[in-house]
Amino acid sequence: MSAVVQIEQQLGVSIKDFDLDESMWSALTSSIFPGAKPESIIMAVEYARARHLDIMKKPCHIVPMSVKDSKTGQSNWRDVIMPSITEHRITATRTNQYAGQDAPVFGPMVDIKFGVVTHTVPEYCTVTIYRIIHGEKVPFCHTEYFEEACSTTKDGGLNSMWTKRKRGQLAKCAEAGALRKAFPEEIGNEYTVEEMQGKEITVGGSELFGDQKKIENDLIPVGYQEFEDTHLTGMRDLALDGMEALEAGYAELPKSKCRSHFWSIHKESLKIAAQNADNQQGEVYEHSPA
C-alpha cells in the first residue's frame, strides 16, 4: 500500500480533491513541509488555494503553536497556518501599486539580556515601503524594536533563529509592519510567521508572548517548547535521509518526558517523510505547480 493511499484512508479524503497528484504530494511531504502532519499539509494547500497562491512556492508555514482558550484557561498545541513575509510581498505586488522599499535602517547596537545570556543587538529597525497613490509615490514607514519583536524560549532566552539572524529577522518584522500600513485593505491586520513565532494564541483574546505566560496544560512537560525548538528542524532534516537516519536521530535525543511528548506529536509525520525518502531514492518526479 502506497503512502498516499494510507494518508487518504487516514484522512478520509482523496488528494485529487485538492488538485494534487502523487508526485506533488510527495514533494509537499518530503521537501516543502517535511515532518508536518498530513492534515496540516492539507490545511496549507486549502489556505493557498483560497488565496490563489502557489503552494509549491511555500507562501505560508505550518507552525506548531500553543493555543489557549480564554474561557477555560487551558492550552493545547496545534498546527496553525501562517503567512510568510513572502505572501505579504505577493499581495502588495498584485495591486500594481507597490513601488519598492528602501534598505532597512538599523538603530545603534545595544546589549540586552535574554534569559541568562546578554546579546548585542540592533535596538530597532525601520523599513520604508512605497505605494503609488493618485500617481504619487507615497512612503509608509514602520519601526520595530528588537526587544518587542524577538521570539524567546520558555526560559526567556532568544530562540535559535533570532540568535542566528538578529538583523534579518528584525528587518522582516519591520517590513511586514510597513506593508500592513501601506496596504491595509489588502493585507489587513494579519501577522507573519516571523512575527508570531514564540507567541501563544489566545482564542477569544489577544496574543501573548510565550515567555510571559505559563502554559497551563499539565500534559505538556516543563521545557517542552525549548526541546521542540532545538530538535524539530534537525529531526525533519534526518527524515529526508530515510528511516535509518530518523531512528538514529531519535535514539540520540535526550531521554525525558519532553522526548516522549515530542515523539507522540511528530512520530507519524516524521515516519511518513522518512518512508517517502526511502521510496524515492533514485527516482525523479516531474510535476507542475499547483
Automatic annotation (TrEMBL):
GO BP annotations listed: DNA recombination
One example GO MF annotation: DNA binding
Alphabetized InterPro entries for the sequence: Phage_lambda_Bet (IPR010183), RecT_fam (IPR018330)
Source organism, top-level taxon: Bacteria
Pfam families: RecT
Protein name: Phage recombination protein Bet
Organism: Acinetobacter silvestris
Lineage of the organism: Bacteria, Pseudomonadati, Pseudomonadota, Gammaproteobacteria, Moraxellales
